[in-house]
Amino acid sequence: MDVVNLDQVPAFETKDGSEIRELLAHRNSAIRQQSLAEARLAVGQATTEHYHLKTEEIYYITHGTGRMRIDSEEREVRVGDAVAIPPGRKHKLWNTGNEPLRLLCCCAPAYEHGDTIMTE
Description:
This protein is mostly beta strands. It has a single domain (13-118), classed as Jelly Rolls. It contains no helices and eleven strands. It has strands at residues 12-13, 19-24, 35-41, 50-52, 56-63, 65-70, 73-78, 82-85, 91-95, 101-108, 116-118. The chain has a six-stranded antiparallel beta sheet with strand order 1-2-3-10-5-8, with no helix packed on it. The chain has a three-stranded antiparallel beta sheet with strand order 7-6-9, with no helix packed on it. The N and C termini lie far apart (41 Å). The mean pLDDT is 96.
């Protein structure tokens, strides 16, 4: 059984500039087709706009508030919001609140730096 606690996962920075703690993926568990990670953006921080060639993502906001852009559409996001990001869609996330923005990221297939194409 693979059980991973968030407090025991080392952080790393993705190509888009967010701080990630990968909870489950092929690198550390029996999971092979997806990954689950927590991302954090400090107050005033934003990711760098990018898209993924193959990976579809789900962002689930757990703490804070932000603004999400997918292609040309923007909207505010808050705790409890789930955002669908299909492959090939440019996206960017801003922390617009006064606390760290924290979200769960589910990626299928699993997140890989090589699948991330920067657009700014």
